[in-house]
Amino acid sequence: MIKMTGKIYIIGIGPGSEDYLTKKALDTVKISDYTVGSTRAIELFENVKGKIAFNVKDLVDKLEEGVELAIKGNIVSILSTGDPGFSGVLNTVLRISKEKDFPKENIEVIPGISSLQLAAAKTYIQWDNANVMTFHGRENTEDILPVINNGKITIALPSRKVKDMAQFLLDNGIEDERKVVVCERLSYPDERIVESTLKDIAQSEFTYMCIIIIYP
């Protein structure tokens, strides 16, 4: 039986700008033998050893490679955009580690700043009383309908284009003058925050890096 002496760090890297990296994240990558993440995520760090870059198609394969390297005794950092526990890679890494008998006690999660947190900060929202939802990786947007009219602000990470989600809400009876704020490319130099109506948002173009805030 292989003696497992390695370590896995699952690191939240924030919304994308190096300004939102934590010191813990920087220090941990520095001591790691290998760092697994998207090219964009890895580029946030200096002097990275053992770079293992993934894309959407080979994500799971690269995560498995990272776990296997940890089984062999290496220190492995796995980078997750935002916070690992919110639309991040936490569950996937835990599942792979369990399948490969890598001990959970050798895994440490380092939280990061979610783009939803930054969106709340930019729009002055006390978000502990908001509906917080993610639709990344799933198409059951219908989940948003039971809560959209509960009197609270809804902060959502769309899984499709913002205008498609807005049109879905319109098609399901949400009033077209409902106030909506779209936070696009938060923390980047070309960050954009647009306040408008649901009807207008459904006719507007945004990049995929967006948070949508729907007011009651």
Unreliable stretches: none
**CATH hierarchy: architecture of the largest domain:** 3-Layer(aba) Sandwich
What's the gyration radius in Å? 19 Å
CATH topology of the largest domain: Cobalt-precorrin-4 Transmethylase, domain 1
Q: How do the strands line up in the largest sheet?
A: 3-2-4-1-5
Q: Which overall shape is indicated by the principal axes computed on the Cα atoms? A: elongated
Number of helices: 7
What's the number of extended β-strand segments?
10
Order of helices and strands: EHEHEHEHEHEEHEEHE
Taking all residues together, what is the mean pLDDT?
92
Structural class: alpha/beta
**Count of distinct structural domains:** 2
Assign the CATH class of the largest domain.
Alpha Beta
CATH superfamily of the largest domain: Tetrapyrrole methylase, N-terminal domain
Major sheet: size, sense and barrel closure? 5 strands, parallel
Could you provide a short overview of the structure?
This protein is α/β, with parallel strands linked by helices and 216 residues long. The protein has helices at 23-31, 39-42, 59-71, 90-99, 115-122, 162-171, 198-201, and strands at residues 7-12, 34-38, 51-54, 75-80, 107-110, 131-134, 154-157, 179-184, 192-197, 210-214.
